[in-house]
Structures are given as C-alpha cells and as structure tokens.
Write a structure and sequence with these properties.
The structure is a single chain. The protein has two domains: about 70 residues, no CATH class; about 110 residues. The protein is an alpha/beta fold.
Length: about 240
C-alpha cells in the first residue's frame, strides 16, 4: 500500500481503504489534533503558510500585535537594513511633516528659504540672502552691564556718569568676539563713560565722548581670547557726533 495517501473508511461497505488519488479529505464536523493541540485554522488560513519557512511562535505573536493597515505596511516596500532599534528611534520622533521638511536642503552650508541652517563639510555657513539681527538696549547707571550672550549690537542712552562698564560672556580660548556699541547722550547731555581697562585704542588713546544733548557716537570692538597672553579688545571709533 502506498504511503502517500491516508486511510479512510469506505461508507459503502465500511471497509478501510486508501484515499484515491485526486480525492479530497473532508473533515467537516471533525477536528485535526496535532500533539494534543486542536487545529482551529481553516483551510484558507493554513494556505497562507504555503511555502513559508523559518517562522516560530514568537513571530506570530508579533504579527498579532500589528495594527498597521496594508497601505501603512506598504510604505516599507523596498526598504532594507532596518533593525528594531531604528523603529524605537522613529517612535520617539514627535516632529510633524512640516518640521521634518525644514531639513529638505538642496546644498549643505548654503542657507535656503524656510529651511534649517546647516554647515558644509568644512564647517562653513554661507548666507545666500540678507542677515538681520536684533539690537539690545543697555540700562544706564553708574555701572553698566553688557552681555555678549544676548547679542552683538548694543545701544546705550546715557543718563548717568558711567564709572564701571562690565563686559561678560565674550569668546573663550582661541575664539573671537566682536560687537557694535551705539552711545547716545540723553536730552541733557554731558554724561561720561569709563571704558574697561582691557580695551586697546589706536595710539593708546581712548576717544573723547561727544557730550552734546542727544549726540550719538558709534564704536566697534574686536576681542580675541588668548591673543598676546590674555583677552585683548581692540576699540575703533566708527563715527561721532551724529545728530
């Protein structure tokens, strides 16, 4: 007797015989038990595994937890090399599509409208358009504080004789800071300003401040840390006695 066909009971004569080739094994109303476990999958469900190999119970547990639609799963068509850690990273991203599109940059290092600012392979940033910067108003007093963390363009309207002018948060070692300072006398005028000791002016002489009411002087400063053994500020007079 051939081994490839199961034995069945012939209902016509109650004899046991081999299932003829080409006939189907009809188990309607009955169950298949494998190793003590009843098979509950129907034929269509079992056919899904036709020619599939290498699956284990853990794989089916994972599949059962998938809630994605066909369209969502098809987004991964053709994608390879992803690991579980990659999906963990993606799950932590809360940026919107609009925010992610800020990174859609044509050329690294060149600014682009409505896109993130980047540096090229040499760390260079090229501005393809204009640059605008807010200025910071300093508070007049006998002591004035200028913080380079808040900007590089400052305006000081004098209403006091300034005896102490503190500059903070300038560049660290081997870096440079530069800023512009606009000094204006108030409606009374004749106020004075003492510069920090670390400022080096041309010929070693600090400029005389304009003292007329509402007069405006503009100064530029360049500070290089660790140059000549310390923080050295070069002071420049850009213009004086503007009305």
């Amino acid at each position: 007797m051939a081994n490839r066909f199961p034995l069945v009971v012939d209902s016509t004569n109650s004899n046991i015989r081999e299932l003829p080739s080409g006939d189907n094994l009809d188990l309607t109303g009955s169950s298949i038990v494998l190793g003590g476990t009843t098979v509950t999958a129907n034929g269509e469900e079992l056919n899904l595994l036709d020619n599939v190999s290498g699956l284990v119970q853990a794989d089916f547990t994972k599949l059962a937890a998938v809630t994605s639609t066909d369209a969502e799963l098809n987004l991964l068509a053709g994608v390879s090399g992803l690991a579980q850690s990659d999906f963990t990273k993606l799950a932590a991203v809360d940026a919107t599509a609009v925010e992610l599109n800020y990174l859609d940059i044509n050329t690294l290092g060149l600014t682009q409208a409505s896109r993130a600012v980047t540096a090229d392979a040499n760390g260079i940033v090229k501005f393809g358009d204009g640059i605008q910067e807010a200025y910071t108003d300093l508070t007049s007093g006998t002591t004035v504080a200028l913080d380079l963390n808040v900007g590089t363009v400052f305006n000081l309207t004098l209403e006091h004789d300034v005896g102490t002018f503190n500059w903070t948060n300038y560049a660290g070692a081997d870096y440079a800071s530069a800023f512009v300072l606009r000094v204006k006398q108030d409606g009374t005028g004749d106020w004075s300003l003492a510069w920090p000791a670390g400022v080096d002016w041309a010929a070693g002489t600090a400029p005389e401040l304009s003292t007329a009411a509402n007069a405006v002087d503009v100064f530029v400063f360049l500070g290089v840390n660790n140059l000549d053994g310390g923080t050295l500020w070069h002071g420049f007079t850009a213009g004086q006695a503007f009305a």
